[in-house]
């Protein structure tokens, strides 16, 4: 509509201009450096307010590639915009320049472009010109009355958390307002609306624990009880020295809170930490390193996405078949391909590719619906039990009810499910927990036997002669092709399957040996396209073809900057080979210990390598579908690329050894000098065995020599005991340093590395940190307290006499059983230790 100025009443025009002038005069924009929105100010467009200390920003933002906008709070000094609170999370706006945030009638209110209020602090207070909104350095947006001397705000965002738990925020039950303050996930990275997952305090009085819930109803994780220091199911809290934790229960409420330790507030900040409930349903503690300009994960729980209830939504199954863990059961497709593939949001689940015949009257005369067997899967919850004597009757009952989507029959028990199937998990073949469920599909989802038969007969009769002739031509062609180039089979996103003959040619009949270990020998090779590879010939692999390919495929899906990439394999009968990227600078041991033809590693490079290797192990232990225990951490298995970036090698190979390796009570794997005590004591092996090996390796980073060396007079010197002695007595730690470094090392980093190493080699695995905690310590994110002296070293520190340590390579004793303790002398040796270098 246009305004005809010539025919418009001049008094009307004057009134309009006056109102516009008055509005502009009375509602001004906030100052660029302000932390406050006062009663006569507004926030619109690209305008923001910044907390007084420059920590947080409040303004309009767009999440990801979304076209929607929201009012939120984010970190000012974090280059990757990270939102910690959203006001209108389920009511987005489309035009930030026509929308406005201002104080109206004593409330902070967000108006849309049509001046419709869509979000408000919703206080029952009288109009007050002294009301103002202030953004604090804690990330708390508070509404307060300047004329009131009371320090308590009349409203604060900390009482209305979204998905982020900031220091000082209280998550729990407020008895005065009868409100349970909880964290709720975003729907996905583009939609901050409340998602399906929440973290909240157990409402039961006296129960001081937290739950993760799906849809505010299904509990799938508990923190365990608060013991005054940590929650029993969150042992990582024991190694977090940054924060002070408190659980409060009084007349006002029951809640948990935390704040930053005062000693860290005195330092120049090197990091920022946040605690969130992710859209995946996991709770995570992350930290931003200003030096690296990236977020890193400190810990998360549940450890794996498949432990989150209904992670893949309705008719989705969670398993190892894809890197995303989620897949649709046969006959179904993602409900939203955009959310599924681009946003990694699987909560919408899957929908049928073809409508059932029983749901469509038009298909009444078509072939009836049928069932498809889905083996090795966990059955959904809450089935309806039906008393029938055989599987045929069970199937008939489900087929006659259109609302029945699936049935299972086991142990003379019939179970049927109506409507959506939730929380399906696809297990590996042969898993004792796997069951078979029969899911109803449209008949058109199956191929017709009659049509197939007619097609086969027609093709067979009309093409027999042609096929025979073509077969001869193909055989001749393939035989020639195999001789001239590598035979490989590659599918998008999968590994390359090499022929044994081609790898034999590429490695010149395995003539250039790069190294050897407990899992086999490694050889250098060159493919016809001139790319250089490393080929490992595996030993003691007795798996069948199908199982081997499945295990290798699982290893091949693991990708991390600090892990060596598996790019192919070969399975030719009993001959099993793995093909890796070639690392031009070889293994770490050649640079640490060799004195000839190797590049000398300065302290900065050593520290970088130690930190990178630790990050690779964190990924294996905590971020893969199943925790992968390396079992043979040592310098030989840390490879270095052209830029001396570390990459952990041989991960996942323990799993390839199958049942033979899994008998941890009768088989020892690993290398002398790096074995954790539990290998000998008969305890089950966990990821903490890798932590021990890593700690022993750290000592070698410092000394530049093997931990156990024989001196010229025949004595065996065990470096860790000497190092621990220096740490305990507070001696000159620079004397521990590799003499080739000539004392050129950061003393603080050196002290930190030695203390971390001592924590890692504690005799009791429960006293060792996790690898994620090791990373935190090495990065300087958390302080490393004075470690206790391990029992196995305490005798030496106190008496300078004898200690027991492992000297024999366990890989050479794969048939030695621990139950025969009388032969323990062949595995361990009592040795006099010298404090001389």
Automatic annotation (TrEMBL):
EC class name: transferase
Region feature (Disordered): 809-837
Catalytic function, reaction form: L-threonyl-[protein] + ATP = O-phospho-L-threonyl-[protein] + ADP + H(+); L-seryl-[protein] + ATP = O-phospho-L-seryl-[protein] + ADP + H(+)
InterPro entries for the chain: Bulb-type_lectin_dom, Bulb-type_lectin_dom_sf, Kinase-like_dom_sf, Pan_app, Prot_kinase_dom, Protein_kinase_ATP_BS, S_locus_glycoprot_dom, Ser/Thr_kinase_AS
UniProt record, GO biological process: recognition of pollen
Annotated signal peptide: 1-32
GO cellular component, one term: membrane
Matching SMART domains: B_lectin (SM00108), PAN_AP (SM00473), S_TKc (SM00220)
Entry EC number(s): 2.7.11.1
Annotated ATP binding sites: 537
Positions with biased composition (Low complexity): 809-823
Compositional bias per record (Polar residues), positions renumbered to this chain: 824-837
Listed transmembrane segments: 456-478
Molecular-function GO term, any one: ATP binding
Annotated ranges, domain Bulb-type lectin: 34-156
Annotated Protein kinase domain residues: 508-782
Listed name of the protein: Receptor-like serine/threonine-protein kinase
